[in-house]
Protein backbone atom coordinates (compact mmCIF):
# COMPACT_ATOMS: atom_id res chain seq x y z
CA UNK A 1 0.00 0.00 0.00
CA UNK A 2 1.39 3.41 -0.96
CA UNK A 3 0.71 6.52 1.16
CA UNK A 4 0.89 10.22 0.37
CA UNK A 5 3.76 10.99 2.77
CA UNK A 6 6.38 9.19 4.84
CA UNK A 7 4.63 7.31 7.68
CA UNK A 8 5.84 8.01 11.22
CA UNK A 9 5.27 6.38 14.62
CA UNK A 10 4.19 3.04 13.11
CA UNK A 11 2.51 0.64 15.55
CA UNK A 12 0.45 -2.52 15.57
CA UNK A 13 -3.08 -2.22 16.94
CA UNK A 14 -6.30 -4.12 17.45
CA UNK A 15 -9.11 -2.09 15.98
CA UNK A 16 -12.25 -2.04 18.08
CA UNK A 17 -14.84 -4.47 16.69
CA UNK A 18 -17.78 -6.45 17.98
CA UNK A 19 -15.35 -9.39 18.34
CA UNK A 20 -13.43 -8.81 21.58
CA UNK A 21 -11.08 -11.71 20.79
CA UNK A 22 -9.75 -10.08 17.62
CA UNK A 23 -5.96 -10.07 17.21
CA UNK A 24 -3.66 -7.15 16.39
CA UNK A 25 -4.01 -6.96 12.62
CA UNK A 26 -4.10 -3.20 12.08
CA UNK A 27 -1.14 -0.97 11.26
CA UNK A 28 -1.38 2.57 12.60
CA UNK A 29 0.84 5.47 11.52
CA UNK A 30 0.99 9.26 11.47
CA UNK A 31 1.08 11.04 8.10
CA UNK A 32 2.56 14.51 7.76
CA UNK A 33 2.01 15.06 11.50
CA UNK A 34 -1.62 15.89 10.72
CA UNK A 35 -3.58 12.66 10.28
CA UNK A 36 -3.56 9.08 11.56
CA UNK A 37 -3.84 6.24 9.06
CA UNK A 38 -5.22 2.83 10.04
CA UNK A 39 -4.82 -0.13 7.67
CA UNK A 40 -6.31 -3.58 8.26
CA UNK A 41 -3.81 -6.05 6.76
CA UNK A 42 -6.45 -8.69 6.01
CA UNK A 43 -8.68 -6.64 3.79
CA UNK A 44 -10.65 -3.47 4.08
CA UNK A 45 -9.97 0.10 3.03
CA UNK A 46 -7.42 2.33 4.81
CA UNK A 47 -9.05 4.70 7.29
CA UNK A 48 -7.66 8.18 7.83
CA UNK A 49 -8.41 10.22 10.95
CA UNK A 50 -8.39 13.99 10.47
CA UNK A 51 -8.37 16.40 13.41
CA UNK A 52 -9.32 20.00 14.01
CA UNK A 53 -6.68 22.55 13.02
CA UNK A 54 -6.82 24.25 16.43
CA UNK A 55 -5.07 21.23 17.97
CA UNK A 56 -1.88 21.80 15.97
CA UNK A 57 0.30 18.95 14.70
CA UNK A 58 0.44 15.43 16.09
CA UNK A 59 3.27 14.84 18.56
CA UNK A 60 2.46 11.38 19.89
CA UNK A 61 -0.35 8.86 20.30
CA UNK A 62 -1.08 5.73 22.29
CA UNK A 63 -3.47 2.81 21.89
CA UNK A 64 -5.26 1.53 24.97
CA UNK A 65 -8.19 -0.45 26.28
CA UNK A 66 -10.74 -1.94 23.91
CA UNK A 67 -9.49 -0.29 20.72
CA UNK A 68 -9.14 3.37 21.73
CA UNK A 69 -6.54 5.94 20.72
CA UNK A 70 -5.43 9.04 22.60
CA UNK A 71 -3.57 11.59 20.47
CA UNK A 72 -1.37 14.43 21.72
CA UNK A 73 -0.78 17.66 19.78
CA UNK A 74 1.90 20.32 19.91
CA UNK A 75 -0.52 23.01 21.10
CA UNK A 76 -1.19 21.12 24.31
CA UNK A 77 -4.37 19.30 23.29
CA UNK A 78 -5.22 15.62 23.67
CA UNK A 79 -8.07 13.90 21.80
CA UNK A 80 -9.60 10.55 22.68
CA UNK A 81 -11.06 8.48 19.82
CA UNK A 82 -12.68 5.07 19.43
CA UNK A 83 -11.51 2.93 16.51
CA UNK A 84 -14.81 1.09 16.11
CA UNK A 85 -16.00 1.55 12.53
CA UNK A 86 -19.35 2.94 13.76
CA UNK A 87 -17.65 5.46 16.06
CA UNK A 88 -14.51 6.29 14.10
CA UNK A 89 -15.50 9.76 12.95
CA UNK A 90 -16.48 10.96 16.39
CA UNK A 91 -14.14 12.16 19.14
CA UNK A 92 -15.03 10.74 22.53
CA UNK A 93 -13.46 13.74 24.24
CA UNK A 94 -10.75 16.38 23.88
CA UNK A 95 -9.05 18.76 26.28
CA UNK A 96 -6.24 21.29 26.26
CA UNK A 97 -3.91 20.06 28.99
CA UNK A 98 -1.02 22.48 28.41
CA UNK A 99 -1.13 26.11 27.30
CA UNK A 100 2.15 26.00 25.38
CA UNK A 101 3.26 22.59 24.17
CA UNK A 102 2.85 18.86 24.73
CA UNK A 103 6.00 16.73 24.48
CA UNK A 104 4.98 13.05 24.81
CA UNK A 105 2.35 10.71 26.21
CA UNK A 106 1.85 7.09 27.23
CA UNK A 107 -0.99 4.91 28.50
CA UNK A 108 -1.04 1.85 30.74
CA UNK A 109 -3.88 -0.66 30.62
CA UNK A 110 -3.05 -2.19 34.02
CA UNK A 111 -3.46 1.13 35.84
CA UNK A 112 -5.80 2.45 33.13
CA UNK A 113 -4.02 5.78 33.25
CA UNK A 114 -2.64 8.33 30.81
CA UNK A 115 0.69 10.10 31.42
CA UNK A 116 1.29 13.35 29.51
CA UNK A 117 4.54 15.34 29.51
CA UNK A 118 4.79 19.05 28.83
CA UNK A 119 5.82 22.36 30.40
CA UNK A 120 8.44 20.56 32.51
CA UNK A 121 5.82 18.35 34.19
CA UNK A 122 4.25 14.92 33.83
CA UNK A 123 0.51 14.79 34.52
CA UNK A 124 -1.60 11.69 35.09
CA UNK A 125 -5.22 11.11 34.06
CA UNK A 126 -7.72 8.40 34.90
CA UNK A 127 -8.79 6.85 31.58
CA UNK A 128 -12.24 6.02 32.95
CA UNK A 129 -13.11 9.54 34.07
CA UNK A 130 -10.56 11.60 32.07
CA UNK A 131 -9.88 13.60 35.22
CA UNK A 132 -6.38 14.58 36.28
CA UNK A 133 -4.99 12.86 39.37
CA UNK A 134 -3.44 16.04 40.73
CA UNK A 135 -1.61 14.52 43.68
CA UNK A 136 0.44 12.36 41.28
CA UNK A 137 1.76 15.25 39.17
CA UNK A 138 5.55 15.15 38.71
CA UNK A 139 7.73 18.26 38.40
CA UNK A 140 10.78 17.49 36.30
CA UNK A 141 14.20 19.02 37.13
CA UNK A 142 14.73 22.42 35.50
CA UNK A 143 17.67 21.12 33.48
CA UNK A 144 15.79 18.02 32.24
CA UNK A 145 15.04 19.47 28.82
CA UNK A 146 12.19 18.50 26.54
CA UNK A 147 10.73 15.03 27.11
CA UNK A 148 11.27 12.98 23.96
CA UNK A 149 9.62 9.72 25.01
CA UNK A 150 7.48 8.29 27.81
CA UNK A 151 7.38 4.53 28.32
CA UNK A 152 5.47 2.54 30.93
CA UNK A 153 6.27 -1.04 31.95
CA UNK A 154 3.25 -3.30 31.48
CA UNK A 155 2.71 -3.72 35.23
CA UNK A 156 2.41 0.06 35.63
CA UNK A 157 4.98 0.17 38.43
CA UNK A 158 7.57 2.24 36.56
CA UNK A 159 7.33 5.13 34.11
CA UNK A 160 10.50 6.15 32.27
CA UNK A 161 11.04 9.52 30.57
CA UNK A 162 13.91 10.28 28.16
CA UNK A 163 14.79 13.91 27.52
CA UNK A 164 16.60 16.05 24.97
CA UNK A 165 19.42 16.68 27.46
CA UNK A 166 20.31 12.97 27.35
CA UNK A 167 18.77 12.11 30.71
CA UNK A 168 16.62 9.14 31.70
CA UNK A 169 14.21 9.57 34.61
CA UNK A 170 12.42 6.64 36.22
CA UNK A 171 9.37 7.16 38.45
CA UNK A 172 7.55 4.69 40.65
CA UNK A 173 3.88 4.96 39.62
CA UNK A 174 2.36 1.98 41.44
CA UNK A 175 3.15 0.43 44.81
CA UNK A 176 5.28 -2.65 45.07
CA UNK A 177 3.59 -5.77 46.41
CA UNK A 178 6.64 -7.01 48.32
CA UNK A 179 5.98 -6.83 52.08
CA UNK A 180 6.34 -8.69 55.34
CA UNK A 181 4.60 -8.46 58.75
CA UNK A 182 5.79 -9.38 62.23
CA UNK A 183 3.50 -8.57 65.16
CA UNK A 184 2.81 -4.82 64.86
CA UNK A 185 5.65 -4.12 62.42
CA UNK A 186 5.25 -3.97 58.66
CA UNK A 187 8.09 -3.85 56.13
CA UNK A 188 7.36 -2.56 52.64
CA UNK A 189 9.54 -2.28 49.56
CA UNK A 190 9.00 1.42 48.84
CA UNK A 191 11.44 1.74 45.94
CA UNK A 192 13.62 -0.63 43.96
CA UNK A 193 16.33 -0.56 46.64
CA UNK A 194 14.63 0.73 49.79
CA UNK A 195 12.62 -0.95 52.54
CA UNK A 196 10.52 1.14 54.92
CA UNK A 197 9.53 -0.27 58.31
CA UNK A 198 6.28 0.87 59.94
CA UNK A 199 5.03 0.58 63.51
CA UNK A 200 1.27 0.08 63.44
CA UNK A 201 0.81 0.72 67.15
CA UNK A 202 2.05 4.31 67.26
CA UNK A 203 -0.36 7.03 68.33
CA UNK A 204 -2.11 9.20 65.78
CA UNK A 205 -4.25 6.64 64.04
CA UNK A 206 -1.81 6.10 61.17
CA UNK A 207 1.11 3.72 60.77
CA UNK A 208 4.31 5.69 61.27
CA UNK A 209 7.58 4.85 59.51
CA UNK A 210 10.31 4.16 62.04
CA UNK A 211 13.21 3.71 59.60
CA UNK A 212 14.27 3.38 55.98
CA UNK A 213 16.77 0.71 54.93
CA UNK A 214 18.85 1.29 51.81
CA UNK A 215 19.75 -1.89 49.95
CA UNK A 216 22.52 -2.80 47.53
CA UNK A 217 20.19 -5.02 45.48
CA UNK A 218 16.65 -5.05 44.14
CA UNK A 219 15.13 -7.81 46.32
CA UNK A 220 12.78 -10.55 45.23
CA UNK A 221 12.08 -11.71 48.80
CA UNK A 222 11.44 -9.87 52.05
CA UNK A 223 11.03 -11.30 55.55
CA UNK A 224 10.55 -9.55 58.89
CA UNK A 225 11.55 -11.18 62.20
CA UNK A 226 11.61 -10.00 65.82
CA UNK A 227 14.95 -8.20 65.44
CA UNK A 228 15.90 -8.23 61.77
CA UNK A 229 14.64 -7.71 58.23
CA UNK A 230 16.03 -10.04 55.57
CA UNK A 231 15.97 -9.61 51.80
CA UNK A 232 17.09 -11.89 49.00
CA UNK A 233 17.65 -11.99 45.26
CA UNK A 234 16.10 -14.41 42.80
CA UNK A 235 19.14 -15.69 40.90
CA UNK A 236 17.44 -18.63 39.19
Summarize the structure.
The chain has 236 residues and is an all-beta fold. It has no helices and 21 strands.
Describe the structure.
- The protein has two domains: 7-172, Methylamine Dehydrogenase, Chain H, CATH 2.130.10; 179-232, no CATH class.
- It is built from no helices and 21 strands.
- It has strands at 7-13, 26-31, 35-40, 47-50, 58-64, 68-73, 77-82, 91-96, 104-108, 113-118, 121-126, 138-139, 147-152, 158-163, 168-172, 179-182, 185-191, 194-199, 208-214, 221-224, 229-232.
- A four-stranded antiparallel β-sheet has the order 1-2-3-4, with no helix packed on it. A four-stranded antiparallel β-sheet has the order 5-6-7-8, with no helix packed on it. A four-stranded antiparallel β-sheet has the order 9-10-11-12, with no helix packed on it.
- The protein starts with 6 loop residues before the first strand and ends with a strand.
- The relative contact order is 0.08.
DSSP strand count:
21
Q: For the record, what CATH class of the largest domain applies?
A: Mainly Beta
> Low-confidence runs (pLDDT<50, min 5 residues)?
none
CATH architecture of the largest domain: 7 Propeller
Which structural class do the helices and strands define? mainly beta
CATH topology of the largest domain: Methylamine Dehydrogenase, Chain H
The rough form would be described as: elongated
For the sheet with most strands, the description reads:
4 strands, antiparallel
Count of separate DSSP helical elements: 0
β-strand amount: over 45%
Tally of separate domains: 2
Sketch the topology as an H/E string, one letter per element: EEEEEEEEEEEEEEEEEEEEE
User: Could you estimate the helical fraction of the residues in percent?
Assistant: under 10%
Give me the side-by-side strand order of the main sheet.
Answer: 1-2-3-4
Radius of gyration: 22 Å
Question: At the fourth CATH level, what is the homologous superfamily of the largest domain?
Answer: YVTN repeat-like/Quinoprotein amine dehydrogenase
- Ends distance: 47 Å
What is the typical, i.e. mean, pLDDT?
85
Amino acid sequence: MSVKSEPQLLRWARQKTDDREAKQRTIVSVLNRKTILMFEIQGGQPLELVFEQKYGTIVDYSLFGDGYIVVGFNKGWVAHISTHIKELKEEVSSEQIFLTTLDALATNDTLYKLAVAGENTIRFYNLNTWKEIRNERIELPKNAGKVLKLEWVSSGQLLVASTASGQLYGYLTAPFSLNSIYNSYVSLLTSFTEVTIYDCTRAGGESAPICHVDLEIEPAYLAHGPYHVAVGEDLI
